[in-house]
Amino acid sequence: MAKVFEKTKMLTDVPFHYCPGCTHGIIHRLVAECIEELGMQDKAVGVAPVGCAVFAYNYFDCDMMEAAHGRAPAVATGIKRACPDDLVFTYQGDGDLASIGTAEIVHAAARGEKITTIFVNNAIYGMTGGQMAPTTLVGQVTTTSPYGRNAETQGMPVKMAEMLATLDGAYYIERTSVHNVPNIVKTKKAIKKAFQYQMEGKGFSIVEILSTCPTNWGLSPVEALKWLEDNMIPQYPLGVTKEGR
């Protein structure tokens, strides 16, 4: 029988710990496939965050470092400068990157560090119990905004891709989604392009990926995919926000 699919060798056989319907697993596979297809298995170094993906070092079959909360870009900067020929990436959620790690990601981009960030935006703090994140939508109910996010008292959602695109050091920034197959395909292309630009020494790259959190959104996996499409994409439009300098 002809083999039609084979799991990438860049993922270990450790079962994912993610909740049913969580799209972290899809994103892990896309990152792993891109590294393998680029022939960088032995030169890839990932930096895991604090958050739902804290155990990413168990899943990617490459050298991995664990960073303090929000500090993954700083750790990645040190690795890349010490090993400039390695493919160095951070894998971060919106609480890790857009809240406690805002300074690190902004200044890594401003310096034009030759690293790639995979930014998973599910508009909520996942691991810690569903609190409001910087990316939480106006009106969205969380454990710390039980009546919905109030723009008057809690501000507006932070659009990281647009914000980072204003920095001269950033080379490639794209926002994608994994709520259906066509967008999963587009996400893989974006991740591969970001890695290729890093390998070419172009500068800082980041792919922001809209993702679901069925558990903390209080929805079924299917409902969560629909909620992302109907609510997150209008707030966070898909597409390239910067390419080149």
UniProtKB/TrEMBL annotation:
InterPro entries given in the database record: 2-oxoacid:Fd_oxidoreductase, THDP-binding, TPP_enzyme_TPP-bd
Keywords: Oxidoreductase
Coiled-coil zones: none
A Pfam cross-reference name: TPP_enzyme_C
Keyword Nucleotide-binding included in the entry's annotation: no
The protein, known as: 2-oxoglutarate oxidoreductase
Domain Thiamine pyrophosphate enzyme TPP-binding: 57-209
Organism: Christensenella tenuis
SUPFAM superfamilies noted in UniProt: Thiamin diphosphate-binding fold (THDP-binding)
Gene3D superfamilies for this protein: 3.40.50.970
